[in-house]
Design goal:
alpha+beta, Heat Shock Protein 90, five-stranded mixed β-sheet, two-stranded antiparallel ribbon
Length: 272
C-alpha cells in the first residue's frame, strides 16, 4: 500500500481529481485499518476496510464508464450533425431548386422527376443520422445515382459518370460513397479548365477485401491540403474516413496531384 501511495504521488499530475480520490481511498483505508489492527486482535476491521475500498473503486469505475459513454454519444451526435451539414449545403439546395424552377416551364415531367429525386436524396440523408450499422452497397449506390441525376439538371452532358460494379454483395457505412462522388464533381470536374469531365465508380473483391474506388479526371489537388484546417474545399473526407474505420474496420486512401485527377480507394473486409 505504501508503494501504491508513492506511485500515486509521483503520477498525480497525469490523473484526474476523481482518479486521485479513488486510488487514495483504495490505498489509505486499508493502511489505517492495518495500523489500528496492530493494537486490536481480530481480522474484522481489515476485512471491512477492504470491502469499503473495493466499493469506492467500483463506484469510480462505474462513474468513469458512464462519463466515457456520454462523451462518445456527444461526439457521435456532433459527427452526425457534421455529416448532415456537409451533405445538405444551402448552395446545393438553392442551385437544385433554381434548376427545377426553370424546368417547370420547359419540361414539367422532368421537373416532377427532379423533385422526386431531390426528395429521395434528402430523405436518405435524414435517415442516415440514426444509422450506425452498415447498409447494403446497392442502397448507397442508389443514393449516389440520385445525387448525379440532380446534378445533371444543371450540368447535363458536361458531367459523365461510369459505373464499373464487379462486386456488390456487401455492406458499407451510409453516407460514405456519395460525399466522395460529390467532391469529385464539385472540386475535381467543375474546377478543371474545361469544367467538364468523367467520374468513375468501380468495385471489386480481392481475396478477403473489398475495394470501392471513386476517381475523376479533374483538376486534382495537393493531398497535404487535407490536413490543413483552413482548407474547407474537401468537405466530409475526415467524416467518411472515421465512419469507415469505426463501423466497417476499413481504410480510405487518396491519390491525387494538381492536374492529374483524383483517386479515392475504400478498403473494407468482406464479412461473410
Amino acid at each position: 500500500m505504501t508503494i501504491n501511495m508513492i506511485i500515486l504521488i509521483l503520477r498525480h499530475k497525469s490523473l484526474s481529481t476523481k482518479q486521485i480520490y479513488a486510488f487514495a481511498i483504495y490505498s489509505v483505508v486499508p493502511m489505517l485499518a492495518m495500523a489500528i489492527q496492530a493494537f486490536f486482535f481480530g481480522i474484522h476491521l481489515i476485512a471491512m476496510s477492504t470491502v469499503i475500498s473495493a466499493l469506492f473503486m467500483h463506484i469510480y469505475i462505474i462513474s468513469d464508464q458512464s462519463e466515457r459513454l456520454h462523451r462518445e454519444e456527444a461526439e457521435n451526435a456532433k459527427l452526425k450533425l457534421d455529416i448532415l451539414l456537409a451533405q445538405i449545403r444551402p448552395h446545393f439546395l438553392f442551385n437544385t431548386l433554381t434548376g427545377i424552377k426553370h424546368l417547370c416551364g420547359k419540361d414539367p415531367v422532368r421537373a416532377e422527376e427532379a423533385i422526386d429525386q431531390l426528395t429521395k436524396y434528402l430523405r436518405h440523408n435524414m435517415d442516415s443520422l440514426t444509422a450506425d450499422i452498415p447498409i447494403p452497397f446497392e442502397r448507397e449506390l442508389e443514393h449516389v445515382k440520385q445525387y448525379i441525376n440532380i446534378q445533371k439538371i444543371r450540368f447535363g452532358d458536361e458531367l459523365t459518370v461510369d459505373y464499373d460494379i464487379e462486386y456488390s454483395d456487401f455492406s458499407m457505412p451510409t453516407l460514405t460513397l456519395q460525399p466522395l462522388v460529390e467532391n469529385a464533381v464539385t472540386y475535381g470536374i467543375r474546377r478543371s479548365e474545361s469544367g467538364t469531365g468523367k467520374v468513375t465508380i468501380l468495385t471489386y473483391k480481392s481475396g478477403k477485401m473489398i475495394r470501392i474506388i471513386v476517381e475523376d479526371d479533374g483538376c486534382g489537388f495537393d493531398v497535404n491540403s487535407l490536413y490543413d484546417d483552413t482548407d474547407r474545399s474537401h468537405v466530409g473526407i475526415s467524416n467518411v474516413r472515421e465512419r469507415i474505420r469505426s463501423i466497417s474496420n476499413g481504410t480510405l486512401e487518396i491519390e491525387s496531384a494538381p492536374g492529374h485527377g483524383t483517386r479515392v480507394i475504400i478498403t473494407i473486409p468482406d464479412i461473410e
